[in-house]
Protein: Aldo/keto reductase
Organism: Candidatus Geothrix odensensis
Amino acid sequence: MHTGQAFSRLILGLWRIGDWGLSPAGVANLVQACLDLGIDTFDLADIYHDHACEALFGAALRTAPALRPRLRLITKCGIRLISPSRPQHRVKHYDTSREHLVASADHSLRALGVERLDLLLIHRPDPLMEADEVAAAFTALKEAGKVAAFGVSNFQPHQVDLLQSRLGEPLQAHQLEVSLGQTRALFDGTLDQAQRLRISPQAWSPLGGGRLLQALPESPLGRALTRLSGDLEATPEQVAIAWLLRHPARIHPVLGSGNPERLRRLAQAQSIQLDRQQWFQLLEAATGQEVP
Ligand SMILES: NC(=O)c1ccc[n+]([C@@H]2O[C@H](COP(=O)([O-])OP(=O)(O)OC[C@H]3O[C@@H](n4cnc5c(N)ncnc54)[C@H](OP(=O)(O)O)[C@@H]3O)[C@@H](O)[C@H]2O)c1
């Protein structure tokens, strides 16, 4: 079991696990391939794969129990989906009550078959969030040894401030959408806050869900990525990840590929250093305008 808080710089996200057609042994093989690449952190959620993602990952760990001590597991809670498996839900909603957060974490632990979650994130900001209740849930989970650290996802800076104001210890992570396809977090205070509070930002959809690469020949961004990847002897997707890694808030891209060969290439992005002008060239191409 890891004792520190450091997550690998690259994280494998398991949102798309249902598309990969993997058996538990296949998932275990993918996990091993990630470990071989230095990716030891895995991002799940209670709701992924229609609530079956954690159980599938847990089944993989049961086929290869030696893997568990080498992994860091992130999961999320707080969204209640309409689903045949949740007939009591009449409307999609958020639930950050103490009761639900604790029950959700307990459910995740059972599904994964592990004693402790390395990081638990509140998946979306809940307009009915009572920060004191969330703090009480976090304290209960921490004191029971069930969760090592807590964070949020998709929060605005003022929502992070509210929650942090009631917590006894710092939030460790903020998972948000940021990429060359979605640059808002660079300018709306989210990444500034992460840097100020030393909250690790985790970038979901770092390749825009694949759309950044699919539009290569047609868009200014696609052309800029292609040109720069030629200069850097890299692939466009490596350059897109290197662009995130260059940010001073120390962004952790949450990769969404289930393809080991693609993951191998993406891991190599960690050795690409974009200089300032290359970084701004891509920003300009992404936003369609030069900085003022
Ligand atoms: N917190 C949140 O609210 C939230 C929201 C969304 C996602 N997430 C997390 O973020 C993770 C990553 O999100 P994501 O899956 O959207 O990430 P992504 O890495 O931007 O997209 C992955 C998708 O892009 C495809 N792709 C990659 N390179 C490509 C290329 N060169 N050409 C065509 N397609 C390419 C992959 O296909 P292959 O599999 O074939 O490589 C895969 O389907 C999720 O798994 C989840 O853990 C969190």
